[in-house]
Amino acid sequence: MQLAVWTYEGPPHVGAMRVATAMEGVHYLLHAPQGDTYADLLFTMIERRGKRPPVTYTTFQARDLGKDTSELFQTAAMDVVARFKPDAMIVGASCTAELIQDDPAGLVERMALPLPVIPLELPSYQRKEHWGAAETFYQIVRTLADKSRRPSEQASRRPLVNLLGPTALGFRHRDDVAEITGLLGRLGIDVNVTAPLGATVADIERLGEADFNILLYPETGDLAAQYLERTFRQPVVRTVPIGVGATNEFVREVAALAGIDPAPLLAQEESRLSWWSRSIDSTYLTGKRVFIFGDGTHAVAAARIAHEELGFKVVGLGCYNREYAREVREAAKRYDVEPLITDDHLAVESAIEAAQPELVLGTQMERHIAKRFAIPCAVISAPVHVQDFPARYSPQMGFEGANVIFDSWVHPLVMGLEEHLLTMFRDDFEFHDGAGASHLGPGHAAPAEQPVAAAVEAEASGWTDEAALELKKIPFFVRGKARRNTELFAAERGIATIELATLYEAKAHYAR
Amino acid sequence: MNAPARLDAQVNGDCAPVLRERGQREVFCGLTGIIWLHRRMQDAFFLVVGSRTCAHLLQSAAGVMIFAEPRFATAIMEERDLAGLADANQELDRIVAQLIARRPDIRTLFLVGSCPSEVIKLDLAKAAQRLGEAYAGSVRVLNYSGSGIETTFTQGEDACLAALVPVMPALPADAPTNLVVVGTLPDIVEDQFRRIFADLGITHVGSLPERVVADLPGIGPNTLYLLAQPFLGDTGQALDRRGARRIEALFPFGVEGTSDWFHAAAAAFGIPTSHVDAVLAPYRARGELALLRHRDRLAGRTIFFMPDSQLEVPLARFLSRELGMVLTEVGTPYLHAGHLARELAALPPGVQLSEGQDVDRQLDRVRALRPDLTVCGLGLANPLESEGLSTKWAIELVFSPIHGFDQAGDLAELFARPMRRRDVLRV
C-alpha cells in the first residue's frame, strides 16, 4: 500500500479515456462500478469539453456481484452499438472490475459485434494514467492501422508525416498541434494524420501512408511510434520541440528526413525568446534559482530552456513518471543536481523547501506548494487544472511556444529594476519584499506567515542581533540561502557567534 | 396564519408511478462525502482503503484541491496487497502507523471501505477493532463503506454517521429530553438553528456530527432526533435502535420547510404553537422577502432533476410550492419513502418521480422536454449547456449553505442564477 493525499496520475483507464475522448467515432466500454463516472468531469469541467466523453460504464453495484455482471457488460455493449454507432469500440475494466475477473475481452469476442473491438489489459494496481494512454493508443494503432498502406510515389507530392501522442486533457496539446502543423507546412511538409487527438478510425487505418512519424508526446505516443517503426519502417523524430534550441534541432532533423533544406526557414523564423533573453532588461534573470518538476519530457525540456535560454540556475529537477526516470537522471547530471524521481508530492514539497528556489516550474501540485511558500511559479506539465486550458492560443512547442514560455515564466518574477529598489530601500513601508511584486497585485504578496521566511528568522539563533538584522535586509527569496551559507561558513571555521562581519565574509567566500 | 401550511394529502398515488430505471448511473460514489465531512469533524481523519482511482476521484471531485493538508488520504492498494489478505492487513497497520506519526492530532480515524477493498473482502470492521485496541486511549478507529458498489454520493455521509451512532454516549432513562440534529450543516446554519432552538425554549440540542467527534451528543430513551438531510436512512435506523425517536417533519429548505421543521420539533417538546409562531415570524418574513426577488424569474419555468444527492425531492417541493416552478421529472438515486413521506405528499399532483438511472435514456427525456433548467452532475452540465440547455450543477447544493430561513433566498438564487446568466449574455 502507498499512502497518498494527492496523485500526479490517475489510474490507467483514465489514460484510455484520454485517448478515446481525443478521437472521433471511438467508444470506450468500461466495466466499472458506479462512482467511476466521476472521470467524465475531468473532460467536461477541467477541459470544458462540450460533449460527454464517449465512455459507457457498466456501473455495477453490490447486488449485481452475486448475479451476472458479465451479462450486464454484454447488455451495455449492445446498447453502445445501437445508440452511439461507433466505428470502433475499446473495452476494458477499471480497478474493481479487474478484481471480479469478468474478462471483458472474451465476452465481447463471443458477441461477434459488427465493428472492430479492441480489448485493453490495463493493470490498475501496477500502472498509471500515462502508461494507460500509451498502451491504449498502441492497441488501437496495432488493430486498426492498415498494413497494406504505404507512402505514395514521393516525386508527385510534398513529404507527409504523422503527429503522434496528443490526447484529451493534455497540457496545451491543442495548441502544440496547431503550432507544429503550421511550422511543418512552412517547411513544405504536410501532416498525414494527427493521432489520437482528432483522429478517426479511417485516419488510423492510413497511418502507413506517411513518410515518417513525429513523436510529440513520448509519454503517450512512444509505444505506437515504436510499433509503426517496426511494422511500416517509418522513422521517428524524437526531438521534442519545446524551447528555441530544441525547435531548431527538430526542424533540422525533420528537414533531413524529408530531404528539405531547413536553412531558409530557420533564417526567417526565430522565436522572440532569443532577443528578449539577450536584451539587457533580462540581465537580472541570470542565475535565478529554478526548481523543475513535471512529467519527464516537459521537465527535461524546461531544464534545458532554463539553463541555456534564460540563464537560470537549475537547483532541482525531477519527474513523477518513473518510466522517464532515465532521461531525467541524464539531464540532472548535466545541470549537476540530484534527480528527484517520485510520485509523492510531500517529497517534492520537502525538496522545494530545501532548495529555496526563486521560481518553481511544475504541475498543479507544485503550483500549490509554491503558493504556500510564496515562491513564484509557472505550470509546465500535466496534471492540469482548468487554468491550464486558456482561451487564448498558447502553445509550448515551436517558436511561438518559446515566446509563450518566456512570458509565462518571467512574468511571475519580480522585475529587474524593481528587484534593485527592493534591495536598496528595504524599510519602505509599502514597497518592501513582503508586499511582493508590484505588477502582480495584492493577491501575490508574500503571506504574513511565510513558512520559509518564518523558519529562517526563527532559527537565526547563534547570530548577533546586528547580524540577524542585516540578514533581514537581504531579499526574502535569497535570504534562506544566505543564512545557510553563512552558518555553514561559520561551522566550518568553528565560529560560534555569527557577527556582521561573518555574514559578509561568507558572502565573499561564496561569491559567484 | 403563520402555522405551517396544510399539506394536501397525496399519500397514495397522486404522483405518477415512480419510474425505476436500471442502466448506467452517472453519479458519484459515497467516498465523495469525505470532501465535506473532513472539514466538519476537526479531530477526525478519513483513510480510504482503495485504489488509485479512489484517490483520483477525491482530488477531482473536490474541484479545487484543498491544499492546507487535508484530513483525508488514500491507502492505495498495489499488486502485492491483492495476493494475500494477511499482507494487506499488515500493510494497513503500517500505513496507519505512518499516518498517526505524521498527524498526532488525530483523535478519530475512519477507515473507509472502497469498491476494491469490498470486492477482495478486506474486513475493515475487524481492522478497525484491531487498530482501535492498538491505539486505545489516543485514537478511536471506526469504519464505514463509501464504495460505489454500496453507496451513492450522499449515502457516504449516511454510512459515516451511522458508524458514529454506536459511540454516542448513553444517556440514562431519567435524563431530560434532548434533541439531536442529524446531518452535516454548514457552521453558519447550525449557529442560526441553535439560536432559534434556544428562542423556542429547546435547550438540550446536539448535532450528529459535531464539530469535534469528542463532543458527540448523548443518546437514550428520551432522545428525539430531527433529520436535517433527506439521505440519512441508515443513520436513522441506527438511532432508532438506540432508542431515539424521529421527529417527522419537512426538511428545512425554504420558508415552508424550515417552519415545518421547527414547528415539529417544538410540538415534540410540548411548546405551544403560538410561541413558535411568534419566534419564527421575523425569520419567515425575512425569508419570504428574499424569495420574492426570485419568484418572478422562476415562476412557471420548468425544471428537471437528474438523480444526484437525494436532496431532489425536498428541493423540488420548495421550488414548486414557494417559487412556482414547474416540475418535469424529479430523479433521485434512492427514494426513502419513510423519511420523505411528508415531502412526497407536498409535491404537486402528477409529478413524475424517477429512482435509479439509465443516463442515456434520461438525457433523451431531457432533450425531448427541453426544461428551462436541468439539475445535474458535473459530467453532464457542460454538454447540456452546449446543447443550449441551462443547468445547475447539483454538487453546489451540497457544498453551499442552503438550509433555513436566512438561506432560502440564497437557495432560490442558485437556481435563478443560471437563467439570469443566460438572459444577460450576448455572446
What does this structure look like?
The complex is a heterodimer of chains A (512) and B (427). Chain A is α/β, with parallel strands linked by helices. Chain A has 23 helices and 14 strands. Chain A has helices at 12-22, 40-46, 62-65, 69-84, 95-100, 104-111, 129-144, 173-187, 201-205, 218-232, 244-258, 263-268, 272-278, 296-309, 325-334, 345-355, 364-373, 398-410, 416-424, 451-458, 465-472, 476-492, 500-509; strands spanning 2-4, 26-31, 55-57, 88-93, 117-119, 160-164, 190-195, 212-215, 236-237, 289-294, 313-319, 339-341, 359-362, 377-379. The longest helix of chain A is centred in the C-terminal third of the chain and has 17 residues, at 476-492. The two termini of chain A are 45 Å apart. The relative contact order of chain A is 0.08. Chain B has three domains: 19-25 and 286-426, 3-Layer(aba) Sandwich (Rossmann fold); 30-151, Rossmann fold (3-Layer(aba) Sandwich); 178-276, 3-Layer(aba) Sandwich (Rossmann fold), CATH 3.40.50.1980. In chain B, strand 13 (373-376), helix 15 and strand 14 (391-393) form a beta-alpha-beta unit. In chain B, helix 7 (155-164) packs parallel to helix 9 and helix 10 runs antiparallel to helix 11. The model of chain B is unreliable at 1-12 (pLDDT under 50). Chains A and B meet through strand 1, helix 2, helix 4, helix 5 and helix 17 of A and helix 2, strand 3, helix 3, helix 4 and helix 5 of B.
